[in-house]
Amino acid sequence: MKEEKETGLGKRRSRSREAFERRRREKKEREKGKNTETEETVGKGSGAEETRVEGSHHGSRSGNKWIILISLSAAVFFLASLYIWKAVGYRDTYFPHTMVNQIDVSGKTVEEVKDLISQEVKGYSLTLKLRDGKEERISGEQFGLHTGFDGSLEEIMRQQNPFKWPRYLLKGPSYDIQTMISYDEEKLKKELEALSCFDPEKAVWPRDAYLSEYISGEGYSIIPEEEGTALDLQRTEAMAKEAVESLNSQLDLEEMDCYINPSVLQEDPGLIEARDARNRYVNQTVTYMFGDRQEILDGDTISQWLVENGNGCSLEQEKVRAYVKELASKYDTAYRKRTFETSYGASVEVSGFYGWRIDQAKETAGLLQVLEEGQSVAREPVYLQKGASRDGADYGNTYAEVNLTAQHMFLYKEGKKVMESDFVSGNVSRGHATPAGICSLTYKQRNAVLRGEGYASPVKFWMPFNGGIGFHDASWRSSFGGSIYKTGGSHGCINMPYSAAKELFEHVYAGMPVICYHLPGTESSAASQSSGKPSQPQPPAVQPPQSQTPTQQPQLPPSQPAQSQPMEVQPTQTDPAQSQPPAQQPTEPSVSIQPVDPQAPTSTESNLPPETSQQRPEGYGPGFESHEETREVGPGVSGK
Question: pTM to 2 decimals?
Fold first, then answer.
């Protein structure tokens, strides 16, 4: 090989000398001035230069190959030497990244590992890091910690193949030797139980997240869970064993999940659902409007109606019904006493069915629907009946005022008196006294027939306000007011002069308040002379049968003119035996009824068609019917 190198070197030197001689000869020829050969000489010189460069490049490439080859050889030799040297070293030391019981023993011999473990065991103590920042400590001596090697370290070394060390450069083997250290497990458990962190009197037990009570103006909220300081002894013992066996000096009990945790957290879906279901009800308001007064139903009350239903809730209907009943008790005016200031300046107490009255069943259903929708609203309750006003007196300033003591009535519209008149009310001596109270006009009717047992009395203007009791004209009377009503009164109706009944009829409307009362001190013994008939001429009165006329006509005193009256309807007291006046009462003689027109039948039951005497249209009160098409009809009235 050396000879080859020398031969190659000799060849390179020979080529360089020949090139030098050639260039020198060419130079001499140029100096002789042979200009004609300049191109040839240049061509030769160029060829010589190319030859020199080519030879130089060839030599350089050959040298680089040798340098690379030598470098690679040296690197291989170095790595092989390193590999072998390391393999020899790992015959009695552990591979890189070798872990024994979580102790890094890389590059250590068996004896060095034993010494390391013995040193750690000798001064070992386990520190428990608690949640509240405190620490508890147990020394190895307290639970009998000592080394106990059984040849496992040597066996690991024996099985280790030194020449495989490169495969563990990134990750080494891990071993768990149970007999490398020993301790008394029962003593460890007792030492743990004796720590103050396991004292049940000092431990704070965890509390689950829960739903708060209702908070006014806020609703319901979730109270977060509390973790507490109570430890799970079994898990703590297991984690402590692992720490001791790996000779770890610290054990973070929270990190190792040794605490007893709450079972319900604030993110619990069921808890969130329960909160939202309740807040949907209590975070709304229902504002009831009662004129210028309001009743606000809000979460403070609604929260008391909620019934738990799994994660959801519902409304207890009985409590909703009780609330509506309470509203009615507070705001209903029907059947309640209220003070009425009479036209005489004195005040009286009146009560009756007139006034505001909530339909409790319908309003309960309506309120439940509103609450289920979950939207705040303002509303009026559903009423069975309404009064004229919510602000001030419920009867307002348009009403008929009936003084039963004075036998005088007034009509007010928008606070102004528009008419007044005497009248004759129910016969007190016969138990037909017109009841006091506040009522409302049911309807008004022209040309009605008042029917009762054994009679039928046509009237021009019929305006009932208390069942079968109402205002009407009385064609059979020629005087009104005074004390006629005491012995010669009606069956309960308000008998009025024809002109007054007509005027009243023109002003009243269904639902208008009618206030009847007694006012001592306003009595009047003198009756007013007024006709109960229209002003135009009337046909002669039909005479009743001779059998119904007393044998001797009694003479009435001047202050009490004779009155002819029909038997009117008393809705609560119907007494057929009193359809004819008794003989011992000469102040109420039997008279015939003046019909509405000349062709009208007399007011005897026998003269009426059978079908009309048996049919009583609904809503009239007992025995009311009309002979012409009805206008301005109140509820339940049908016309013929």
Answer: 0.59
